[in-house]
Design goal:
The chain has 1388 residues and is α/β, with parallel strands linked by helices. It is built from 48 helices and 48 strands. 39% of the residues lie in helices and 18% in strands. The protein has a 15-stranded mixed sheet with strand order 3-6-5-4-7-8-9-10-11-12-13-14-15-16-17. Helix 16 packs across helix 33 and helix 18 crosses helix 22. It is globular, with a radius of gyration of 36 Å. The N terminus is likely disordered. Bound molecules: guanosine-5'-triphosphate and magnesium ion. This is C-terminal of Roc (COR) domain-containing protein.
Length: 1388
């Protein structure tokens, strides 16, 4: 039976003869359905391209027209835009014909909307409303921007009215007129005429945007007249069909006698219908006109020529003009086919000539080339320029460098090391932005190059894997630009470092610290300087406490050889861990010099008496140390060059005088060292008796040596910081009773610092900015705690960490200064309790150094503020100074039920309205849980952070329990459950009354994005942790399964699922869930499209289209001799041109965001339609043009023998037959198969007898090319569609299939080396080709091809004429061909 996949009707190739059920010769191309065509060409192809940073939250309200006009005349907030969508022809309510007013203040964007609707709506009534609005607008000085979206047919009346009104108006600054997207028709030329005439009179409008317009010579003339006369218009954007002749007229005003010198921004977005090449675009000739202007004009600063069909030649003329032009700053050449030659021309103008050391153009600041094609060669050109360039600020290559590899990206990144001008680098969509090396290089670069503020990595593999969050966090810091303040200031080697002592309770940390400090005092006796506010034996303050357990963190400072070392002794007891990560610097590579000491008690008491000890088991040691190593790794941002240093110390060595402890400890430490190699640098380990000065001496020496070397390596600190440190220490000595310093005192200290005094500009604001920058730098270095917005800072970390936070977090009632517990079970406490804690922190002990010390200048309110800033607590009623506070970190332990994973869940809004609601669940989990985890403090801080966001929302009903949050927000109910640091999963269950698009968007904005960002933020988050996003099985959410039941296999990673869909090449892919614990029968599946949600689905579609486009390029490009010679070079021109993107035009029509939903939906429909069209077309295309894809040896091309080979394992039934993807010589055999080569659809022949192939060394070598060619073909078929691949898809496992399709994930990497990449171009040496050819011909010689393979040799008869095309096809295709007279049999 012929298994031609093309038979299936859904391929769109309907069989013309049902008896034969064979496909009719198919048309090679299919037209897009008209709707798709319209939509495709108008809408913005990818929403996220234009999406900039988080917009303000939006609110809508619908109003009646009088309400709107009132607001227009008397706006409650600033009016951003007035938007009139006038299209009386459209009657349906869903079409959003409306008038809306966008208002904004600092916090919100508000939209007042009036809809044209109702039964008695007529053209006149619509018109009347518009006239009314226009009249009101003209009278309202508050409106500075108007957008008109209109029907292209009837709207010139409205435009005329508006223009007449604007004759006298002087307040409107920006006018945009667009024709309604849905008609995809240019504005009536009358409209343009009115507008042009208006500009002869109006002198207020500075910016004009018109779209879509047809600029014929007449229209060009009208606009040119306006440009000649008008002297106020500064920005002109034309979304237009315009050719070079019209452009010549339009640009005339810029030359001649009195040239226009007011226009600063000129933008053309070329428009062309799909398929119409070059039509309506200015092309290279147009570029020449523009170049002429650039040579003379001196006002133009921004020039955008998007989608104008300008190629390298046109760019060359522009670049030439840039050599003389001295005003242009921005050049945008997006959507043009300019390639690397074009790029080279532009880059040349700003590349320093090594001979003369001169950079030709120094005014030019921004290069924007999006959605073009810049091959790998572009990387070195750009890197070369960036190394020396001193002016370029922005380089935007979104979706233009998709095929760069990590190597290319690294080249560009390395070139930026010393660049101080570039601020924006956009590599969105670049496939080479992938892997930890790139991530770490970017992170390190952002530290050493603080001038970089934005690095676009969206749509790259790095972002898909969730690694972009921490990059963005670092970018946010860079954007604060505090280093700018220090520009030009001198730097010195830092002289202060921090040492963190970690380890489980009773490990001996405190003992070690004390012994160390004591010996420090002894040794430096005369010049003794122990700067400690922690009382020596302060453990006595907490009377009755078991032994000497540390509470909170104790901080002590010693000075040794002029190096100041502060020792941070972290409490081992778990109740304090939540606080620890706030003080641990996650900026190890930022140059805060620090080092970790990890202590471990080597002994285990034996028996009851406790006098006998045995050695701790190595597994226990491993377990103990691992926790703290993960703690350190989780709190440290990834880096390539500066990993945190850890020294391991085993204490209690005195108990085993006769054992070689070094030998015993070596193995567990070494094991951990290797495991953590990527994230932590375990430098050494020691064994000692922590109580003995003599015993710790070598340890201490080694530590000090290490610290000195760290200080040498970390980036230098600014003079100002180090000088201020001295001043601050003096201040602290004078005020030993003040743990806080007021901001005013701090600025006073700053004003005495010589390095700051020397700087230029002494006005108060600048001085204040500088003080802030210094404070921030010192905060990062751990010298003090500083937060923007507080009027004080903590200068005594011990006081805050130990005496205050330690006490607050301690659950030990003997510590409490109150009768009742300080914090109740719900984490709630009253403000006055804090006062008691504060009072108790007055030092009452007998320490001679600090006798009579009392803490002054602190009020409880300061404490609350500080804790709120640290996300340690939230106020029950924010802003109310008497309100109680909640400290989630102090929530009492899990209930038994919850601890078992059986916390019962219920929706906050109760049992109402059941099934019609959407139920969606997500899981965020820690990517590498062996090395990192969400530390104990993370979830409590997240609880605070989310609460702060919803504190203003009235119906949020935010409630927390230990490891749990529930709240309601804008129609969505959220249940968030955290399952503790072991597995590190945050489950987010949502029930929503909103539709899918809105639900997804809301969850993303309110929880997912926030959590990711929070996790990546320094100090508050766990920067070392990468959160990956998974989708939860909807049933878990619908039925509110308890945590225990929501096992690992009830969730699927977003990226994993996307890959599965892509690998299946089916848009209706269904994911089958593994059975849950209690389920017995039935497989439950959900459609991937529904599981992934709209935005993810759009990504899937786009990526699928990308791969189809790549195939299209390969299949349909004609090989030239040039191509042939470059075939194997990595810069092969066979890499696809992103024609799809170029073929489309961008509509940047600013639509009110209520439309975004429809836009997204229509984009999704369009994309799927596009996919379908491609799928239908590519299969026959590939079948016809196999030779474009694979370079068969000549004789095989000539069809001497059938040559589409694949190998199988053989097998009894069809189902057990597997495709052979690897071949190693051996004494076994494989089955040899051939495919039907019919030009309408190649396919495998089911039940083919096939040949036997013995796998001896020689055969394997000769058959290898055939196997790979076959695999390449199958891989291409698989990528086209499931249907095209026919029976092949059943012969592969999912993993094999994914690899064959070129989707290799990092985890498979080692194995993948064996896998040749069959998605790329295959190449063999001439000898190999010859051998392969000989082998096949020889092999087939003795075979009965018809009997074994079911193939017959035919020649195609085109128009009845005998052509030269011969092929080997199956019997069904033969019969069909003979019947239709399209083939003729040939003797075999
Ligand atoms: N024999 C012996 N005893 C030690 C050694 N190190 C610590 N100890 C004793 O172990 C007990 C606990 O030591 P600490 O230093 O308080 O322990 P810690 O690590 O600070 O504990 P937390 O603060 O609760 O995390 C003390 O009684 C110390 O005297 C050692 O090397 N040998
Ligand atoms: Mg301690």
């Amino acid at each position: 039976m012929c298994n031609s996949p093309a038979i299936n009707g859904s391929m769109g190739l309907s069989p013309s003869d049902s008896n034969l059920s064979l496909p009719a010769p198919s048309p090679t191309t299919l037209a897009l359905p008209p709707k798709a065509q319209n939509a495709l060409s108008m809408y913005n192809p990818m929403s996220f391209i234009e999406k900039e940073d988080a917009p303000k939250p939006q609110k809508y309200s619908e109003v009646d027209i009088d309400g709107l006009i009132r607001a227009l005349k008397n706006p409650p907030e600033q009016i951003v835009d007035l938007y009139i969508h006038y299209c009386p022809r459209i009657k349906s309510d869903t079409d959003n014909c409306s008038v809306s007013l966008t208002l904004a203040d600092h916090n919100f964007v508000r939209r007042l909307l009036y809809r044209f609707e109702g039964p008695d709506r007529t053209q006149e009534s619509d018109h009347k409303v518009c006239s009314k609005v226009i009249n009101a607008l003209v009278a309202s000085p508050a409106v500075s921007s108007v957008t008109l979206e209109i029907d292209y047919v009837q709207s010139d009346v409205i435009v005329a009215e508006l223009c007449t009104a604007l004759h006298t108006n002087r307040t409107l600054k920006k006018l945009s007129v667009y024709s309604d997207n849905r008609f995809q028709q240019a504005l009536n030329s009358e409209c343009v005429k009115h507008i042009a005439e208006m500009f002869l009179v109006n002198t207020g409008v500075q910016e004009l945007q018109l779209g879509l317009i047809d600029i014929n010579l007449q229209v060009a003339d009208n606009l040119a007249l306006a440009l000649r006369r008008n002297r106020s218009l500064q920005g002109l954007t034309l979304y237009a069909r315009i050719d070079s002749d019209a452009l010549a007229i339009l640009t005339k005003p810029f030359s001649g006698q009195e040239p226009n010198q007011t226009l600063q921004k000129f933008e053309i977005k070329g428009f062309k219908c799909l398929g119409a090449r070059g039509d309506g675009q200015i092309g290279n000739k147009g570029a020449e006109h523009i170049a002429t202007i650039l040579c003379r004009n001196s006002s133009l600063k921004e020039l955008a020529l998007k989608n104008c069909m300008i190629d390298s030649l046109g760019v060359q003329t522009l670049a030439l003009a840039l050599l003389t032009n001295k005003s242009l700053e921005v050049l945008d050449l997006s959507y043009n086919p300019l390639d690397v030659d074009g790029l080279k021309e532009i880059v040349k103008t700003i590349t320093m000539d090594p001979a003369t050391q001169i950079q030709p153009n120094t005014t030019f600041r921004e290069i924007i080339i999006r959605h073009s094609f810049i091959s790998r060669a572009g990387a070195s050109i750009l890197a070369n320029m960036l190394k020396t360039n001193k002016t370029l600020e922005r380089l935007d290559l979104q979706f233009s460098v998709r095929l760069w590899t990590p190597k290319d990206v690294l080249m560009v990144l390395h070139s930026l090391k010393n660049n101080q001008s570039l601020r924006f680098l956009d590599l969105r969509g670049c496939e080479g932005v992938d892997g930890p090396k790139i991530r770490d290089t970017i992170l390190d670069l952002l530290v050493s190059n603080p001038w970089l503020e934005q690095v676009g990595v969206e749509g790259t593999p790095l972002a898909r894997k969730g690694h972009d969050a921490v990059i963005k966090a670092q970018l946010r810091r860079n954007a604060e630009k505090y280093s700018e303040v220090f520009k030009g200031m001198g730097t010195v080697t830092p002289t202060a470092a921090r040492v963190f002592l970690c380890g489980i309770p009773f490990a001996g940390k405190t003992t070690f610290r004390k012994t160390m400090v004591y010996s420090n005092i002894k040794r430096t006796s005369s010049s003794m300087r122990v700067k400690t506010s922690a009382a020596f034996e302060n453990s006595k303050i907490f009377k009755g406490r078991k032994e000497s357990q540390t509470i909170g963190i104790e901080v002590q400072v010693i000075v040794e050889d002029n190096v100041q070392i502060s020792i941070w002794d972290l409490a081992g007891h778990e109740e304090f861990h939540a606080f620890h990560d706030l003080v641990v610097p996650n900026l190890s590579s930022q140059g805060s010099a620090c080092s970790f000491v990890l202590l471990c008690d080597i002994s285990v008491p034996q028996g009851k008496g406790g006098s006998k000890f045995e050695l701790k088991d190595v597994n226990v040691i491993d377990h103990e140390l691992r926790y703290w190593l993960r703690f350190i790794a989780s709190n440290t941002r990834q880096s390539l060059h500066m990993l945190p240093n850890v020294t391991v110390i085993f204490t209690h060595s005195d108990k085993f005088p006769k054992i070689d402890l070094i030998a015993y400890c070596k193995q567990p430490v070494e094991k951990l060292r290797v495991q953590f190699l990527r994230v932590i640098n375990i430098t050494e380990f020691h064994v000692c008796d922590a109580r003995s000065r003599k015993s710790i001496e070598p340890v201490q020496k080694a530590m000090q040596k290490r610290i000195v070397s760290i200080l040498d390596r970390v980036p230098k600190v600014f003079d100002a910081c180090s000088q201020l440190q001295i001043k601050l220490n003096e201040w602290k000595n004078q005020h030993p009773d003040k743990p806080l310093i007021k901001w005013s005192d701090f600025t006073l200290l700053c004003s005495k610092v010589p390095a700051l005094k020397r700087l230029q500009g002494q006005d108060a604001d600048i001085a204040n900015e500088r003080a802030k920058a210094v404070a921030r730098a010192m905060h990062d270095a751990g010298e003090l705690l500083y937060f923007d917005g507080l009027d004080f800072m903590v200068v005594d970390p011990n006081w805050f960490c130990h005496e205050i936070m330690g006490r607050i977090l301690s659950l030990d009632s003997s510590l409490l200064v109150l009768k009742q517990p300080l914090i109740d079970q719900k984490g709630y406490t009253k403000r006055e309790h804090l006062k008691k804690v504060l009072e108790a922190s007055f030092c009452k002990n007998k320490n001679p150094l600090f006798k009579g010390r009392k803490v002054r200048g602190v009020i409880p309110e300061d404490l609350v503020q500080l804790m709120v800033k640290l996300n340690l607590c939230f106020e029950v009623n924010p802003g109310d100074k008497t309100s109680g506070i909640v400290i989630p970190a102090a929530l009492s332990n899990l209930s038994e039920e919850a601890a078992r994973g059986e916390r019962r869940l219920s929706w906050p809004l109760g049992h109402n309205h059941g099934d019609e609601l959407l139920h969606i669940g997500w899981r965020l989990k820690c990517e590498d849980s062996d090395l990192t985890f969400l530390t104990l403090g993370f979830f409590p801080r997240l609880q605070v952070f989310l609460q702060k966001r919803f504190s203003g929302v009235s119906d949020a009903s935010y409630a927390i329990e230990k490891n749990f949050i529930s709240f309601v927000f804008s129609g969505l109910e959220f249940l968030i459950e955290y399952n503790g640091p072991e597995d590190c999963q945050i489950d987010i269950l949502v029930r929503s009354s909103k539709d899918t698009v809105e639900t997804w968007a809301t969850v993303e904005d309110t929880v997912l994005k926030i959590t990711r960002e929070f996790c990546a933020s320094p100090t508050e988050g766990c920067q070392g942790v990468v959160l990956i996003e998974e989708i939860m099985r909807p049933q878990c959410v619908r039925e509110l399964w308890v945590r225990k039941k929501r096992t690992k296999d009830q969730c699927i990673g977003v990226e994993v699922l996307k890959q599965k869909v892509l690998a299946s090449a089916r848009l209706d892919y269904e994911y089958i869930w593994k059975k849950s614990m209690e389920e017995s029968q039935g497989l439950k599946a959900d459609r991937a499209e529904e599981l992934l949600g709209p935005e993810n689905w759009e990504d899937v579609l786009n990526r699928y289209l990308d791969s189809l486009e790549k195939i299209d390029f390969e299949v349909n490009s004609k090989k030239s001799s040039y191509d042939m010679s470059n075939m194997n070079s990595p810069l092969s021109p066979l890499t696809p041109q992103p024609s799809r993107r170029i073929g489309r035009t961008v509509s940047l029509l600013p639509r009110p965001s209520e439309m975004t939903r429809q836009l997204l939906e229509s984009r999704l429909t369009d994309r799927s339609m596009e996919v379908e069209v491609y799928q239908k077309r590519l299969f026959p295309d590939l079948s016809r043009n196999i030779d474009n894809v694979i370079d068969f040896p000549f004789l095989l091309q000539d069809a001497k023998v059938p040559h589409l080979v694949y190998l199988s394992t053989g097998g009894d039934s069809v189902n057990s037959e597997r495709l052979v993807t690897k071949l190693t010589p051996g004494s076994y055999s494989r089955k040899f198969h051939l495919m039907c080569e019919h030009r309408d659809g190649i396919h495998m022949i089911e039940h083919q007898v096939g040949g036997i192939m013995r796998c001896d060394e020689k055969s394997v070598r000769s058959v290898r090319p055939h196997m790979l060619w076959g695999l390449k073909l199958i891989s291409t078929l698989l990528r086209i569609s499931e249907l095209a691949a026919g029976g092949f898809s059943n012969m592969l496992t999912e993993a094999e299939r994914m690899r064959l399709m070129g989707m290799v994930t990092d985890d498979d990497a080692p194995d993948s080396i064996e896998w040749p990449d069959v998605t790329g171009r295959l190449s063999f040496t001439p000898e190999e080709m010859m051998a392969a050819e000989d082998w096949l011909i020889h092999y087939m010689k003795s075979k009965n091809i018809a009997a074994l393979f079911g193939l017959y040799k035919v020649v195609y008869l085109d128009d009845g004429m005998e052509s030269k095309h011969t092929a080997w096809i199956c019997d069904k295709h033969v019969k069909y061909g003979l019947h239709h007279g399209t083939v003729q049999m040939l003797p075999m």
